[in-house]
Design a protein that fits this description.
- Helix content is 66%, strand content 0%.
- By secondary structure, the protein is an all-alpha fold.
- The chain has one domain.
């Protein structure tokens, strides 16, 4: 009987609370939170991470028999704050990234060091432009 009383009280309290919050129709029509939409650059960077994470093991064991993908769209992908990617600093970092991927593709024997150099270039850019993903990017390093 005691548990039933608590359940009824809880349900009544919740119903009263819900009705009192929606007494003003306008407050119920507006969502309190909005989802952020990922930018082109955010989506590109996620693709880059997933791709490099997938080829990392092939670089480690030397079984990578093709050139790795260069994400040249990095120069023109629209960021959440577009002014950042239009800056000369960002453009220089993007160019360094592409050069480091080309270096991996041109390396015959020491692809591990070249791969880590590419990760260094990613880390350097993110240190200056957008530090949030650095924790994840560090996982790409080959030890």
């Amino acid at each position: 009987m005691y548990k039933k009383s608590i359940l009824i009280f809880t349900l009544l309290s919740f119903t009263i609370l819900l009705l009192s919050n929606c007494a003003n129709k306008q407050s119920c029509d507006k969502p309190k939170y909005t989802m952020a939409i990922d930018s082109e650059l955010t989506l590109l960077m996620r693709d880059m991470y997933n791709y490099y994470d997938s080829v990392k093991s092939e670089v480690v064991d030397g079984s990578l028999d093709e050139d790795i993908k260069t994400f040249t769209e990095i120069h023109k992908a629209v960021a959440t704050s577009p002014e950042k990617t239009l800056s000369p600093l960002y453009q220089a970092f993007a160019t360094n990234y592409i050069q480091s991927v080309n270096h991996i593709n041109q390396s015959d024997k020491n692809r591990k060091d070249a791969f880590n150099l590419m990760v260094d270039n990613c880390m350097n850019c993110h240190q200056q432009m957008c530090p949030g993903p650095m924790v994840r990017i560090k996982k790409l390093y080959i030890e």
